[in-house]
Amino acid sequence: MKRIAVLTSGGDAPGMNAAIRAIVRKGIYDGLEVYGINYGYAGMVAGDIHRLTVDDVGDTISRGGTILYSARYPEFKDLEGQKKGIEQLKKFGIEGLIVIGGDGSYRGGAALTKLGFPTIGIPGTIDNDIVGTEYTLGFDTAINTVLDSVDKIRDTATSHVRTFIIEVMGRNAGDIALWAGIGSGAESIVIPEIDFRMEEVVKEIRAGRERGKKHTIIMLAEGVMQGTEFAEKLKEYDNFHTRVTVLGHVQRGGSPSARDRVLGSLFGYNAVQLLEEGKGGLCVGIVGSELAYSDISETLNTKRDVPYLSLYQINKEISF
Ligand code: F6P
């Protein structure tokens, strides 16, 4: 293999640049030509492809976002788009592809591999909702961003003796709420993976107040419901002086944490090695501190078990 390409697709995530940098540098170190595809699969189909040099990825490891831009491109599920994409890659003599993104990106990668174009997936999403890895790129930075915000919110919550519902991202997954919840000492964590009862949340708020706590933090995953809806339901029980904060896209930005930079470098490096070994249809991940490989199609057909779901019960027992 002489030429490989990389793209980022779906929601951006801190650490994507570290992975791109590793791919470019490792590829060039090994004598390959490395190409960047702008705007994910949309750019691939449009032929928005350019060669990357060692310098192009200089000073990027500390930057959030993705220097290759990203896009959601549902049209890529059509065979026609996939064939057009491969045609564009072939025009540049590209023989292998690395996609960095979430399950939508993996679906594209699996389809390309099935059509005979070797593709490797790198899990990149703040949601942490990918099978085959315990941590995705961007998750660690995102939860640290949430913690920074909650630390600030707690100041004002205490001053006014208020209850804050913090709505965090994660799409259908509760990982961000779970980790940021336990990390911020939230009195309640509400995630899609575990049924909740409002009576239980009310009990948790009251227990804190009875102990003299001046603030209450409820960490709510967006996959359960919106923060405003949750506040309405809570109001039916009592007036807890509730305020809602929707952290939104602030969770997707910012300089990647040390962990995301290291993971990005590790994933990028190993993805290149897999292509060099003539492998496709695989994705890289981290399981039990070890690098892991999985079949992309299998990951897409496997129900995900949330890693460390036991944190939910731990939080109940230590954050009352
Ligand atoms: O998948 C990443 C994510 O940030 C989710 O947590 C969120 O639900 C979604 O993307 C938001 O998508 P968009 O940026 O397209 O509004």
UniProtKB/TrEMBL annotation:
<keyword id="KW-0808">Transferase</keyword>
<dbReference type="GO" id="GO:0016208">
    <property type="term" value="F:AMP binding"/>
</dbReference>
<feature type="binding site" description="in other chain">
    <location>
        <position position="222"/>
    </location>
    <ligand>
        <name>substrate</name>
    </ligand>
</feature>
<comment type="function">
    <text>Catalyzes the phosphorylation of D-fructose 6-phosphate to fructose 1,6-bisphosphate by ATP, the first committing step of glycolysis.</text>
</comment>
<dbReference type="GO" id="GO:0070095">
    <property type="term" value="F:fructose-6-phosphate binding"/>
</dbReference>
<dbReference type="GO" id="GO:0048029">
    <property type="term" value="F:monosaccharide binding"/>
</dbReference>
<feature type="domain" description="Phosphofructokinase">
    <location>
        <begin position="3"/>
        <end position="275"/>
    </location>
</feature>
<feature type="binding site" description="in other chain">
    <location>
        <position position="154"/>
    </location>
    <ligand>
        <name>ADP</name>
    </ligand>
</feature>
<keyword id="KW-0067">ATP-binding</keyword>
<dbReference type="InterPro" id="IPR000023">
    <property type="entry name" value="Phosphofructokinase_dom"/>
</dbReference>
<dbReference type="GO" id="GO:0003872">
    <property type="term" value="F:6-phosphofructokinase activity"/>
</dbReference>
<feature type="active site" description="Proton acceptor">
    <location>
        <position position="127"/>
    </location>
</feature>
<keyword id="KW-0479">Metal-binding</keyword>
<dbReference type="GO" id="GO:0046872">
    <property type="term" value="F:metal ion binding"/>
</dbReference>
<protein>
    <recommendedName>
        <fullName>ATP-dependent 6-phosphofructokinase</fullName>
        <ecNumber>2.7.1.11</ecNumber>
    </recommendedName>
</protein>
<dbReference type="GO" id="GO:0030388">
    <property type="term" value="P:fructose 1,6-bisphosphate metabolic process"/>
</dbReference>
<dbReference type="GO" id="GO:0061621">
    <property type="term" value="P:canonical glycolysis"/>
</dbReference>
<feature type="binding site">
    <location>
        <position position="103"/>
    </location>
    <ligand>
        <name>Mg(2+)</name>
    </ligand>
</feature>
<feature type="binding site" description="in other chain">
    <location>
        <begin position="125"/>
        <end position="127"/>
    </location>
    <ligand>
        <name>substrate</name>
    </ligand>
</feature>
<feature type="binding site">
    <location>
        <begin position="72"/>
        <end position="73"/>
    </location>
    <ligand>
        <name>ATP</name>
    </ligand>
</feature>
<feature type="binding site">
    <location>
        <position position="162"/>
    </location>
    <ligand>
        <name>substrate</name>
    </ligand>
</feature>
<dbReference type="InterPro" id="IPR012828">
    <property type="entry name" value="PFKA_ATP_prok"/>
</dbReference>
<keyword id="KW-0418">Kinase</keyword>
<dbReference type="Pfam" id="PF00365">
    <property type="entry name" value="PFK"/>
</dbReference>
<keyword id="KW-0963">Cytoplasm</keyword>
<dbReference type="GO" id="GO:0042802">
    <property type="term" value="F:identical protein binding"/>
</dbReference>
<dbReference type="GO" id="GO:0005945">
    <property type="term" value="C:6-phosphofructokinase complex"/>
</dbReference>
<feature type="binding site" description="in other chain">
    <location>
        <begin position="185"/>
        <end position="187"/>
    </location>
    <ligand>
        <name>ADP</name>
    </ligand>
</feature>
<keyword id="KW-0021">Allosteric enzyme</keyword>
<dbReference type="GO" id="GO:0006002">
    <property type="term" value="P:fructose 6-phosphate metabolic process"/>
</dbReference>
<dbReference type="InterPro" id="IPR015912">
    <property type="entry name" value="Phosphofructokinase_CS"/>
</dbReference>
<feature type="binding site" description="in other chain">
    <location>
        <begin position="169"/>
        <end position="171"/>
    </location>
    <ligand>
        <name>substrate</name>
    </ligand>
</feature>
<keyword id="KW-0324">Glycolysis</keyword>
<dbReference type="InterPro" id="IPR035966">
    <property type="entry name" value="PKF_sf"/>
</dbReference>
<feature type="binding site" description="in other chain">
    <location>
        <begin position="213"/>
        <end position="215"/>
    </location>
    <ligand>
        <name>ADP</name>
    </ligand>
</feature>
<dbReference type="GO" id="GO:0005524">
    <property type="term" value="F:ATP binding"/>
</dbReference>
<feature type="binding site">
    <location>
        <begin position="21"/>
        <end position="25"/>
    </location>
    <ligand>
        <name>ADP</name>
    </ligand>
</feature>
<comment type="pathway">
    <text>Carbohydrate degradation; glycolysis; D-glyceraldehyde 3-phosphate and glycerone phosphate from D-glucose: step 3/4.</text>
</comment>
<feature type="binding site" description="in other chain">
    <location>
        <begin position="249"/>
        <end position="252"/>
    </location>
    <ligand>
        <name>substrate</name>
    </ligand>
</feature>
<feature type="binding site">
    <location>
        <begin position="102"/>
        <end position="105"/>
    </location>
    <ligand>
        <name>ATP</name>
    </ligand>
</feature>
<dbReference type="InterPro" id="IPR012003">
    <property type="entry name" value="ATP_PFK_prok-type"/>
</dbReference>
<keyword id="KW-0547">Nucleotide-binding</keyword>
